[in-house]
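step=predict obj=DNA-formamidopyrimidine glycosylase family protein n=243
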Amino acid sequence: MPEGPSIVILKEEVQQFSGHKVLEVSGNSSIEISRLQNKIIRGFKTWGKHFLICFDDFTIKIHMLMFGTYRINERKETTPRLSLIFANGELHFYTCSIKILEGDINLYYNWEEDVMNENWNPKKAKQSMDKIPDKLICDALLEQNIFSGVGNIIKNEVLYRCKIHPESLVGKIRKKDIQSLIDESVTYSFQFLEWKKNDELKQHWLAHTKNMCVRCDLSIIKKYTGVKKRRSFFCTNCQKLYQ
């Protein structure tokens, strides 16, 4: 599943179509795609893992889910979920969720919750964390209404860097460590963005999918943790368990 930084890259790659008219539209999406015909794209936005194509009075929301992909000025052999043709190129989306959001896009999203948005509000994140003391930190970091854009890779890497065990209870973690987790979620997301652009992301992983802890030279544990049952990679020696 693409995480927030990957969707930011998508937004940057399609700027050539901003302000352009959709000349042709097709695809096997269940939405009324004919509405896009001859409409001008007013801009592109992202909110966490959501990619947003903004028109005058509605927005197309695209979620890549687990296996979604896109192509710019080229096509895959499979039928796209949504295909947009412009005078200066074409854009295609595959195996993704597509919905129409009516009216003002700002009514649907709180931009303060997106760790990569200029309006990101760390104080709001801290307040939200204070309200879920009994939740495991591995689940809390994946809550999109707190850390929009943070996915499983970022979760694992942030917890490792902050030396926090993924099964720690939010309410038991020291306040300064909660703040470190909040700050590192943003820092690592922007590092992820740059590494992804340079095609070197995996080279920088310290915990995710790894076998050995680089700090302790001990085995990394792989376990499906939390209510979400997502893969966690962690060291039981240097990542403290708060219970």
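step=describe
DSSP finds five helices and ten strands in the chain.
step=end
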